[in-house]
Amino acid sequence: MTRLGQVSESGQKVAEAIATVLKIEVEIIDTDLVRIAGTGIVRNDVGSRLLRGLVNKHVLQTGNHIFINEAGFHEICLSCPLTGQCFYKASIVYPITAGTETIGTVSLIAFNEDQKETLGTNTDSLIEFIGRMADLISSKALEREILTERMVMANRLEAVVDSVDEGVIAVNSEGIITHFNRSAERIFGTRKRFLIGKDSKEVLPSLPLEEALQDGKGFHSREVFINYEGRKLHLLSTVKPIKLENGQVFGLVASLRDFKETQKLAYEIMNTQDMIDFEDIVGISQPLMAVKTKAQKVAPSNSTILIAGESGTGKEVFARAIHASGPHGHKPFIAINCGAMPENLLEIELFGYDETAFPGAKRGGKPGKFELANDGTIFLDEIGNMSLYLQTKLLRVLKERRLERVGGTRVIPVDTRVIAATNRDLREMIRKNIFRDDLYYLLSVIPLVIPPLRVRQEDIPLLLEFYMKRFSKLLGKGITGFTSEALNICMNYYWPGNVRELVYAVEYAINLEESNDITVESLPQALRETTKKGIPNDITSEGRLLPLAQLEKEAIITALDRYGWSDEGKTRAARVLGISRATIYRKIQRYGLKPDRE
Question: Which of 520, 538, 556 is the C-terminal boundary of a domain?
Answer without folding.
Answer: 538
